[in-house]
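Section 5: illustrative case.
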């Protein structure tokens, strides 16, 4: 992998150096003695000494400002490098776009139960009658049974709230993983938010170029591996490696192998898979070599499952195997 240049020459550095040199030249000029006039009878202006002092003061201030800007630039640059190191190889989950927006449930508000309202109103008219109808109301109230009065008083006069349409949950497209370091960070609207210096932008551009080169190399290696036939021995299957899996092209006639032949075949497969890992991802930890149990064909992968008796389960071309 090509190393990232951590201190490239940038426009900011050139500008800082240029202003510093101008301030140093002004300071050097301020300490030179005042030139005496060569014209006979000409006098030295009293303001020339003041001009020298002012020139020295301005030069000192410019040097101090240039030093502060240099320190701030170095701080910003190291902050940019820290940002790149923290986020190199990292990604964030971006939710998918909304396909169907969420909808709240549609509810029917409570409605008056007219029959019950009429009965309650009739009981109220008998209990608190109009003075002109008091005698008749008293007779009607006395004729009602107490349980009927209680039943009418307990009648609900409003219906319960009812759901007309159920709520609909939001439906989104599948989420996707997006690298934290992308060319979008080099855009003007994002540059000052994440990377402050031109040197940091240059380092990011170099990283992205290296990443793209690695992806192209991995794709090329994957393509070559998918076209290359691999045979562990003449009696076993012949096929290709693609997507990290062994794809059988020619079905061999399995025959019992000696332990030495089995070990040799497994070592060849292990070496092939290690080389494929290196091409796909430079930073991936190297896998360790593990023997396959007897009865498990070459190329089978561990599924992570176990039988009730505790034996590991292997898979090859959609078929499961359990070692002896």
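Designed sequence:
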């Amino acid at each position: 992998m090509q190393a990232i240049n951590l201190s490239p020459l940038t426009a900011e550095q050139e500008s800082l150096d240029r202003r510093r040199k101008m301030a140093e030249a002004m300071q050097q000029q301020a300490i030179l003695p005042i030139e005496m006039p060569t014209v006979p009878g000409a006098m030295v202006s009293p303001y020339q000494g003041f001009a020298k002092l002012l020139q020295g003061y301005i030069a000192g201030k410019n040097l101090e400002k240039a030093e502060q800007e240099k320190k701030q630039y170095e701080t910003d640059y190291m902050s940019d490098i820290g940002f790149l190191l923290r986020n190199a190889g990292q990604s964030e989950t971006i939710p998918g776009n909304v396909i169907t927006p969420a909808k709240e449930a549609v509810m029917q508000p409570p409605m008056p139960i007219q029959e019950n309202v009429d009965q309650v109103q009739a009981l109220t008219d008998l209990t608190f009658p109009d003075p002109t109808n008091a005698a008749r109301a008293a007779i009607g109230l006395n004729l009602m049974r107490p349980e009927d009065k209680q039943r009418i008083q307990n009648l609900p006069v409003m219906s319960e709230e009812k759901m007309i349409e159920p709520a609909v949950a939001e439906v989104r497209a599948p989420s996707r993983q997006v690298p934290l370091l992308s060319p979008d960070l080099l855009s003007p609207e994002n540059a000052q938010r994440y990377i402050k210096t031109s040197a940091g932008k240059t380092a990011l551009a170099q990283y992205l170029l290296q990443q793209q080169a690695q992806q192209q190399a991995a794709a090329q290696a994957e393509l070559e591996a998918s076209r290359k036939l691999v045979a562990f021995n003449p009696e076993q299957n012949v096929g290709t490696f693609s997507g990290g899996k062994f794809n059988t092209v020619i079905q061999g006639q399995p025959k019992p192998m000696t332990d030495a032949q089995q070990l040799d075949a497994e070592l060849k497969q292990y070496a092939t898979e290690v080389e494929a890992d290196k091409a796909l991802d430079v930073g991936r930890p190297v896998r360790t070599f593990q023997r396959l149990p007897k009865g498990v064909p070459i190329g089978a992968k561990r599924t992570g499952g176990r039988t009730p008796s505790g034996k590991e389960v292997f898979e090859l071309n959609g078929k499961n195997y359990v070692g002896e």
